[in-house]
Amino acid sequence: MPKKKLLLKNKKSLNSTAMQIQIKKFYYGDIPEEKSSAPSTPVTRDEHEWPLWEVFIRSKQGLDHKHVGSLHATDAEMAIKNARDVYTRRQEGISIWVVESKNLHASNPDDAAMLYDPAADKIYRHPSFYNLPEEVKHM
Amino acid sequence: MYKAIKMTEITRLESVFQDKVDKEIKVEAMDWMPEAYRKTNLRQISQHAHSEVVGMLPEGNWITRAPSLKRKAILIAKVQDEAGHGLYLYSAAETLGSSREEMVADLLMGKAKYSSIFNYPTLTWADMGAIGWLVDGAAILNQVMLCRTSYGPYARAMVRICKEESFHQRQGFEALLELSRGTTEQKAMCQDAINRWWWPSLMMFGPKDSDSPNSELSMKWKIKRKTNDELRQQFVDMIAQQVKILGMTLPDSELKWNDKRGHFDFGEINWEEFWNVVKGNGPCNKQRLHARRAAHDNGSWVREAAVAYAEKKAAAKKQKVA
Questions:
Q1: B129 with B137: CB under 8 angstroms?
Q2: What is the CA radius of gyration of chain A?
Q3: By the 8 A CB rule, do B104 and B299 touch?
Q4: Nearest to A49 among B29, B91, B101 (CB)
Q5: What is the ipTM of this complex?
Q6: What is the model's pLDDT at position B4?
Q7: Among the four residues A139, B138, B296, B313, which has the most C-beta atoms within 10 Å?
């Protein structure tokens, strides 16, 4: 009985109410669809699916907020409440940031070589590049 | 012609990918990955998430009947952790291109699998102890291995889970320890729970290596790092020692230390039962799915109300600004 009901519901949403949304592999970031290894077939989604939020937690005073994961919530207030239950059950944090995933932008992994490799041959940017006499103290 | 070029490009990407995996560089959501790698991870992570969610049911059964306030608080915390673990895993699976709604629908329609162990009934309070000690114990071995899995989001979720899981096993053992030092009836209850959960726990590691066709590729891609049989042996060696502290026995007449192998030998699993439960004919398969569906259906008004409230609040805010 419940199975039948569920199937019917699904069918209805296929035909009428639900929007056809092309699921992007990454909810954050600007990676073009064709570069992702996501399936190309569109998936039906409920109109009211709660948006995805990224959660950042400051584990103790004086430290940065750090990305810990994501969750679904209707709005920011609920996202913070849910983040508290999901990610801080054992005093893992004292402050929570949430950002709706669609508002996050990321660099493209294909550009990694161009963006980060040039720094590799600039060893003079590190203190160990400079040989100083032993007698020089406190430097 | 075009197709041939495309194939060589994929072969090239695959070899770059394998090279990375061999060098122990984690794969992240935005990186190129073979389609089969994506699918295998998605299947495994979502099944794992479903297992956490369905896993709340056998224990939820005993929350209202826990023998003391202390045990009740512990059990509630454990079940809440399992809900949390399900959420970590669903969000890891979502990075692979599936939506939460889709995964939940697959579970509710009986399309997706979850760990067969949760299709066994929890008949006495001692089952709460046996589940913590044996079932979570078996899960931990698998999960500790998965902390080093090659897919970054999965590995990170596993690290978080492992930190929390250790309390689950310890509280279970402690609950049994208390029974094992109790009255004759309590001792009998403890032994009975061990007898019923031992074999299903061994089955949690999956089919034998010789019958597990996916294993080889999963090892090559470092999704798994130990085979089903290796993990199972590790589990038997561990539990065969721990059971002595309880003064109880494991229901296997063939269980004995093998000096030559440096491991415990143990009897053959009833594979017919294993496949039967996997295929949906276990003692509680229907009951579990029915409970999930009921929870989903009965909770739909809450989800709708939450959306309506958020919309109303957003509208009010907009009006205030204007």
A1: no
A2: 24
A3: no
A4: B101
A5: 0.87
A6: 61
A7: B138
Q: Are B72 and B66 in contact (CB under 8 A)?
A: yes
pLDDT at B106: 92
Segments of chain B assigned E as strands: 256-258, 263-265
Q: Which residues of B touch A27 (CB under 8 A)?
A: 94-95
For residue B240, give both structure tokens. Answer: 């065969």
Query: Tell me: the pLDDT tens digits for A20-73?
Result: 433 333 333 333 333 333 333 333 345 578 999 999 999 999 999 999 999 999
* Rounded Cα distance, B142 and A37, in Å: 27
Whether B193 contacts B126, CB under 8 Å: yes
Q: Report phi then psi at B138, rounded to 5.
A: -65, -40
Measuring CA to CA, how many Å separate B318 from each of B65, B315, B322? Answer: 49, 5, 6
CA distance B59 to chain A (A): 19
CA distances from B67 to A3, B62, B64, B281 (A): 36, 9, 9, 32
- Could you please state the CATH topology (level 3) that the domain comprising A20-115 is classified under: Ubiquitin-like (UB roll) (3.10.20)
Q: Which of B80, B88, B97 sits opposite A38 (nearest CB)?
A: B97
Residue A25, chain B, CB below 8 Å: the answer is: yes
Go through chain A and tell me how many residues it has: 139
Vertex B51: Cα angle to B50 and B56 (nearest 5):
100
Nearest CA to B198 out of B259, B131, B244 is that of: B131
Pairwise CA distance, residues A23 & A44, whole Å: 9
Q: Angle, nearest 10°, between helix axes B184-203 and B152-180?
A: 160
pTM for this entry? 0.84
Mean pLDDT, contiguous 10-residue spans, chain B (322 residues): 70 93 94 93 95 96 95 97 96 93 91 92 96 96 96 96 93 97 97 98 93 82 94 97 97 97 97 91 91 91 92 91 78
Residue A4 contacts B where some CB pair is shorter than 8 Å: no
Per-residue pLDDT tens digits for A110-135: 888 888 887 778 889 988 899 999 99
Query: Is B110's Cβ below 8 Å from some Cβ in A?
Result: yes
A11 falls in which pLDDT band (50, 70, 90)?
very low
Q: What is the pLDDT of residue A22?
A: 39
